[in-house]
């Protein structure tokens, strides 16, 4: 609250005397205190007109929380609030529910107060309005009480007019003054200390403020549910909580906690036009049910067996915490918070006000996290679409790749990998990185990847590939740094040539376990002008060697030299993973998946030069099944049988046919993409690989699960058959999906 005298600079009218700086506050406080006492109110407030006489600003509130926070800080003169209507009409105005229900809605009123407001005016000037709130349980205001409040308002107007004549500016401060005044007749059972005015309201505010603090920090739906569990469920003794969003005419569960399985089943996928309490609440009005069975019978909802209490709170997008209740219908509903309790219970007015405020904070947090999730999904989808759909392989070379986006950003990155097969028995391996996390980074990455693949396919050596790509990039005019590693391998004789553009050297693990860098001139990034041509270096790989190409995000959190860090990482993981390339890749990427450690995208490309079996040609075969091929599973079984028979392993056919059938069926049903089937025969085992475009791992379902677990189990019982026949299976995500692999020992192949 302000007056010109409060700052020491007194404006005068007609040279009148000094005005004390506290006079305005003291006069308004006297009116607030008298209104509280005479009208048995929970809150009293004074609104004053702004300088332009266009809005009412809240100057002072007397009372206790949570009613403090249900009053808007400012309002236009044309709004239907009681304060604005009283000033506009010059008569007392009553507001029972600022957002009345529609004809077919039967709710306990979410706004638990009755408001009475009177104008504060004298013969020459309008100052504002005096408003009181009373709990709905005390009933509406009588005509005599209208007169009492008007009497207080008239006295306030007379005092303010005298201040104005003495030169004081009658205006509210930038924030209202709050005066805690507890009414001993108002007590919310279960909160605070009985008989201590204001204790219950202050106790109700503690979980609200703590919830707000945690929600401001929440970046995932799990964090939102965790905050609600501690500071909404626990304080109000709820046994279950479910958060659901409204999309495409249906409710979809976002998260849940407690004994919530029944509520989850009834909510998830339910239509918004159904006669259910959640669908009612999604229309914008909270619903508080003291007895589920009685309410269902009264309103014609589906019969329920439980008599437990329930609460359904609409979640408003961006709803401010200080104004959660009035005119909720004007805000956009993004979801609903559903609470259930073990037994029937009342919802006192102050609890309803607090729960509605909590729903306002939850709605803003849910909207923010859902928006971030959608942005992250779009960015990740774009990133993955720019990566190769599958990796080219040669009979003597096995490859696998991993792409792990940085968890600290929802934006798309510029890391990529590629395996380019050339005529003969040659292959080019590529790992690169475009600076930044933005759409521009992804666009440049797509251009560079295309250029590298084109120049490599034309037959240029690695140094020429990056030299030509760098010149093309300069013509495109990008100012982003682009680094790249290109490795060309001739699998016929093990000759390998490496060219770098600002990247660390790739690593090679020899058959004896020793790890070395494939040294080459570092050169400069592709986007940096280079006076001389790029240079590369040749090496020779021994059969059985492993190549590792990687981006800085894999290791730069651990050491100043990425090459040293990569060697340590490869050495430790290869001992645990053994010779299995997929398990090794999983182990390497898992070591850097901690969000606190990794702030950049991580790309890993592994290639094993497999000519160690002693055969001139490895036993390999592949089959691609189209997404909607109704004969795909049959084709997979025939493919496995034909290959094994050709390799002299017909005794393994029945078991591997059944394994392939189950994995391919799961891929076709759940991934919704083309499926790539590969079979590789080794000296002591046969390896089956099934690749699809869904990165989510398959989940085998035990024979007995709870209802919630069964709803989340993705692949039914089929993988139990795979486990029974093979003993173990592995699922490995890569840039464009996952690979499910099974190894069956030749000596133990019979089912």
Keywords:
alpha+beta; 17 helices; 27 strands; 24% strand; disordered N terminus
Overall mean pLDDT stands at 79
Q: How much helix is in the residues? A: 25-40%
Distance between the termini: 85 Å
Count helical runs: 17
Give a quick account of the main beta sheet: strands, pairing sense, barrel closure.
7 strands, mixed
Number of strands: 27
- Please identify the structural class as seen in this structure: alpha+beta
Instruction: Choose one word for the global shape.
Output: elongated
* SS strand fraction: 15-25%
Rounded radius of gyration (Å): 36 Å
Poorly predicted regions:
3-21, 301-305, 319-329, 612-616, 699-717
Describe this structure in words.
This protein is of the alpha+beta class. The chain is 33% helix and 24% strand. Strands 1, 2, 3, 4, 5, 6 and 7 form a 7-stranded mixed sheet that branches. Strands 9-8-12-11-10 form a 5-stranded antiparallel sheet, with helices on both faces. A hairpin with a 2-residue loop joins strand 26 and strand 27.
Q: What is the element layout, followed by pairings?
A:
Blueprint: H1 23-38, E1 43-49, E2 55-63, E3 74-76, H2 82-89, E4 93-95, E5 113-121, E6 126-135, H3 143-165, E7 177-180, H4 199-217, H5 221-236, E8 240-247, E9 250-258, H6 261-267, H7 277-281, E10 287-289, H8 292-299, E11 310-316, E12 333-340, H9 349-385, E13 397-404, E14 414-422, E15 426-434, H10 439-457, H11 462-476, E16 482-490, E17 495-501, E18 507-509, E19 515-517, E20 536-540, E21 546-550, H12 562-577, H13 581-590, E22 602-609, E23 619-625, H14 632-646, H15 653-671, E24 675-681, E25 685-692, H16 707-712, H17 718-726, E26 729-734, E27 737-745
Parallel strand pairs: 2-7
Antiparallel strand pairs: 1-2, 1-6, 2-3, 4-5, 5-6, 8-9, 8-12, 10-11, 11-12, 13-22, 14-15, 15-16, 16-17, 17-20, 18-19, 18-21, 21-22, 23-24, 24-25, 25-27, 26-27
């Amino acid at each position: 609250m302000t007056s010109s005298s409060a700052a020491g600079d007194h404006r005068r009218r007609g040279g009148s005397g000094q005005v004390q700086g506290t006079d305005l506050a003291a006069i308004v406080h006297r009116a607030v205190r008298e209104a509280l006492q005479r009208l048995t109110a929970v809150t009293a407030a004074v609104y004053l007109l702004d300088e332009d006489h266009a809005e009412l600003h809240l100057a002072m509130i007397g009372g206790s929380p949570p009613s403090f926070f249900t009053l808007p800080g400012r309002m236009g003169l044309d709004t239907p609030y009681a304060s604005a209507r009283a000033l506009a009409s010059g008569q007392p105005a009553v507001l029972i529910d600022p957002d009345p229900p529609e004809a077919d809605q039967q709710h306990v009123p979410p706004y638990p107060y009755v408001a009475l407001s009177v104008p504060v005016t004298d013969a020459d000037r309008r100052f504002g309005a005096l408003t009181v709130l009373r709990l709905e349980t005390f009933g509406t205001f009588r005509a005599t009480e209208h007169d009492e409040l008007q009497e207080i308002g008239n006295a306030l107007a007379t005092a303010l007019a005298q201040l104005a004549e003495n030169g004081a500016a009658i205006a509210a401060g930038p924030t209202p003054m709050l005066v805690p005044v507890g009414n001993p007749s108002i007590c919310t059972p279960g909160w605070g200390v009985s008989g201590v005015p204001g204790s219950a309201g202050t106790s109700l505010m503690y979980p609200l403020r703590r919830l707000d603090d945690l929600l401001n920090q929440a970046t995932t739906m799990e964090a939102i549910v965790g905050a609600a569990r501690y500071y909404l469920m626990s304080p109000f003794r709820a046994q279950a909580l479910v958060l659901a969003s409204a999309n495409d005419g249906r409710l979809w569960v976002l998260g849940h906690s407690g004994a919530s399985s029944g509520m989850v089943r009834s909510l998830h996928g339910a239509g918004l036009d159904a006669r259910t309490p959640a669908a009612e609440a999604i229309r914008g009005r909270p619903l508080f049910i003291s007895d589920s069975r009685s309410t269902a019978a009264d309103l014609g909802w589906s019969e329920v067996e439980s008599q437990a209490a329930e609460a359904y709170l609409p979640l408003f997008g961006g709803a401010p915490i200080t104004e959660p209740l009035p005119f909720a219908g004007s805000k956009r509903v993004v979801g609903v918070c559903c609470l259930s309790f073990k037994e029937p219970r009342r919802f006192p007015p102050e609890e309803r006000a607090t729960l509605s405020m909590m729903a306002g904070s939850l709605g803003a947090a849910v909207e923010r996290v859902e928006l971030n999730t959608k942005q992250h999904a779009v960015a990740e989808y774009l990133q993955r679409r720019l990566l190769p759909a599958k990796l080219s392989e040669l009979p003597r070379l096995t490859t696998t790749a991993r792409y792990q986006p940085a968890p600290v950003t929802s934006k798309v990155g510029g890391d990529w990998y590629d395996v380019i097969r050339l005529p003969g028995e040659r292959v080019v391996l590529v790992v690169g990185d475009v600076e930044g996390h933005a759409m521009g980074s992804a666009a440049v990455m797509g251009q560079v990847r295309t250029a590298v693949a084109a120049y490599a396919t034309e037959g240029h050596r690695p140094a020429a590939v990056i030299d030509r790509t760098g010149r093309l990039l300069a013509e495109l005019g990008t100012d982003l740094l682009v680094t790249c590693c290109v490795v060309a391998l001739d699998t016929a004789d093990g000759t390998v040539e490496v060219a770098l553009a600002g990247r660390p050297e790739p690593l090679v693990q020899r058959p004896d376990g020793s790890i070395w860098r494939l040294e080459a001139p570092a050169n400069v990034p592709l986007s940096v002008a280079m006076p001389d041509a790029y240079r590369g270096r040749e090496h020779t790989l021994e059969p059985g060697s492993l190549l590792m190409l990687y981006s800085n995000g894999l290791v730069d959190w651990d050491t100043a030299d990425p090459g040293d860090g990569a060697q340590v990482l490869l050495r430790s993981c290869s001992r645990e993973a053994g010779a299995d390339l997929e398990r090794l890749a999983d182990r390497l990427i898992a070591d850097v998946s901690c969000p606190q450690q990794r702030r950049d995208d991580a790309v890993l490309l592994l290639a094993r030069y497999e000519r160690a079996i002693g055969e001139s040609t490895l036993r390999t075969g592949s089959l691609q099944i189209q997404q909607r091929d109704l004969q795909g599973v049959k084709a997979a079984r025939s493919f496995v049988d034909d290959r094994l028979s050709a390799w002299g392993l017909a005794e393994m056919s029945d078991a591997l046919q059944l394994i392939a059938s189950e994995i391919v069926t799961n891929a076709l049903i759940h991934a919704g993409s083309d499926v790539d089937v590969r079979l590789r025969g080794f000296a002591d085992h046969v390896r089956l690989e099934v690749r699809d475009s869904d990165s989510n791992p398959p989940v085998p379902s035990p024979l007995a699960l709870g209802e919630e677990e069964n709803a989340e189990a993705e692949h039914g019982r089929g993988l139990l058959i795979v486990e029974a026949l093979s003993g173990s299976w592995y699922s490995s995500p890569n840039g464009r999906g996952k690979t499910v692999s099974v190894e069956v020992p030749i000596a133990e192949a019979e089912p």
